[in-house]
Design a protein that fits this description.
It is built from 7 helices and 7 strands. It is an alpha+beta fold and 217 residues long. It has 2 domains: 10-63, no CATH class; 65-216, Aminopeptidase, CATH 3.40.630.30. A hairpin with a 5-residue loop joins strand 3 (113-122) and strand 4. The relative contact order is 0.09.
Length: 217
Amino acid sequence: MPPISSESSFVLLDELKQNTLEEVFDKVNELYGQEKITREEVNKITDALVTLNQVFLKQEKANFTIRQATLADVDSLMEMIEYWAKKGQNLPRKRNDIIRGIQTFAVCVKDKQVVGCACLYVYDSGLAEIRSLGVSPVIQRQGQGRAIVNYLLKRAAKMYIDRVFVLTRSPEFFSRVGFQKTVIEALPEKILKDCENCPNKDKCDEVAYIYNMKDHK
């Protein structure tokens, strides 16, 4: 398809610039309420906005994929985990631990490159933890982190896990995804496994958040 000619381009009014599609729709309804446009015009504009939104969603979905990690991803996982461990966001992981636990990992892939990861660690009690969540700093804030978390939550649901928790320094992110704030004392499995031996246990600045599956069915 040939590119759209500049002669056919239109001038966008200043009052519409930087507006979301939802805000444009609100302005259209406002004009209709003021009887400045007809219902037929509203319908045409609405159809156009819906089509435009679908096009953007299609492009966004095609931008990256989330899948089960494989042994071919180990080097990329090591690189991602080491990067965020140095930033103090995650605990470091040994290569052999990643290899043994490869089935617990999910990866975000863009242009055949791993640009994000996380794992779902299941405790003996059936409680699960999302660990080692990290996204390439080059493409952060494009929805990859949320997509990885949602992928692991769906995996947890298939395993009939009732609760998934995380210890994080980014509480706003997990709150938006549906997690609720809790206290580390409510997670004895985590305390026993990691916290007791953590060098930062007396000065921990991570916040505990939990996702109750039953609240989201």
